[in-house]
Amino acid sequence: MEPKAEVLKHSLKRFSRRSFLKYPVIFGAGLLVGKLTAPCPLIAEVTDCPDNPVIPPPPAREDLSSRFGLHIPNDGSFDPVQIMETGAGWIRFVAMQEDKVDPTKILEYLARCRQIGIKSLAVVAKESIGDRDLKDAARFFAQVYDGAVDAWQIGNEPDDTNPDGKWSWKMDGVSFTSLLWIFRNAMGQKAYLVAGGLDTNRLEYLQDVDLSWVNALAIHPYGQGLPDWPSPYGFPGHIGLMVDKYFKYANIFGKKLWITEWGINHDHFGENYAADYIRKMLTYLRDSVEVNTKVDKIFYYNLFDQANQEFSLVHTDYTKKPSYYAFKDVALGKTTAVDPKRLDSFSDLSHISPFPG
Q: CB within 8 A of 196, min separation 6: which ones?
């Protein structure tokens, strides 16, 4: 008769991600005894997918210059010193093909950022691929940016359900797994990969996603409220609950949780409300015992973006909005009390994120 531990171990191998979604407590406890074997993604032409991928451990928190980051244009238009003055230790930008963005220019810019301690997260989004085959595009980014960026977000809002979503890179869980595998295979085991930007608060999307190929899972919690500040859009619950459920799922598989995109429409709500909301939200994520150890990185969208300027921290003439100072205060560790604002919920959800859908 086999020992009980061995019986449990064999039983766990039959568990799927659906099992976790139904029985999270049992599943989590079981993984302390048995090891979950990751399935190979369903790519017809792939024959050398390893059964047990070796993923490097994420860097220790104390080795990272800051938890806060800012999305910036990918043209190098912001001096790294200006970014450092915001208190951000990371930048986030969309990686593009060479016919869209000169790789030499962005590589020089990333080197300047790194010289003063600013790290970088490069996003591989739908617009990053262009006309290239996925595997060819992955090899291109791996070769051109080798060692120049500190982390990669692979995919962008794959769980989006809006058929009119222009920028979301929608795909089912199996296809998303294949995308993650392609980039892990191209970039090697040393690359820090983040499964990119789930934005619908539907944990069940992950039931067909294999996180074995990444180091972290990312969410985009647009429109979420706080325990003492309701969602501007009337969403139920609050960001603490959203973070908690994704953190627990990611932690089962030994992955970190990042927020790689979040922001608010200043034009729709007003600059003063936007500043208070940003200050309150980021302070909660930084200081609250409910979530402050659960989110490893927090990126605001955006410092400046001509196409989505209503979410930016600075105006088109580069003068600073009140929200710039709100972000800076929190990123630099300052604490300023903000009274909760009680606004009527907005039924028009078209302003919830900078991207339709």
A: 123, 124, 125, 153, 154, 155, 156, 157, 158, 218, 260
- Which tens digit of pLDDT belongs to each residue from 161-206? 876 666 789 999 999 999 999 999 999 999 999 998 999 999 999 9
The three-state DSSP-derived secondary structure of 57-107 is CCCCHHHCCCCEEEECCCCCCCCHHHHHHCCCCEEEEECCCCCCCCHHHHH
Q: Which two tokens stand for residue 154?
A: 């692979």
Q: Which of 222, 258, 256 is nearest to 92 (CA)?
A: 258
**pLDDT-based confidence at 55, cuts 50/70/90?**
low
The structure tokens listed for 43 are: 């790519």
* SS3 category, 258: strand
Give percent above pLDDT 70 in the chain.
Answer: 74
Long-range contacts of 30-38 (CB under 8 A, 24+ apart): 31/252, 33/5, 33/8, 33/9, 34/8, 34/9, 34/10, 35/9, 36/12, 36/253, 37/13, 38/210, 38/212
In angstroms and rounded to an integer, the radius of gyration of the C-alpha atoms of the chain is: 20
- Say how many C-beta atoms besides its own lie within 10 A of residue 100's C-beta: 12
CA end-to-end span of the chain, whole Å? 56
Dist CA 131 CA 315 (whole Å): 34
Length in residues, the chain:
357
Q: Amino acid identity, residue 174?
A: V
Give the CA angle between residues 141, 145, 148 to the nearest 5°.
Answer: 150
β-bridge pairing 256-259 and 297-300 = parallel
Residue-range domains of the chain with CATH: 1-37 (no CATH), 40-331 (3.20.20.80)
pLDDT in tens, 248-273: 999 999 999 999 999 999 999 999 99
Query: Residue 52 has which token pair?
Result: 């047990």
Q: Shortest CA distance to 180 belongs to which of 156, 210, 147?
A: 210
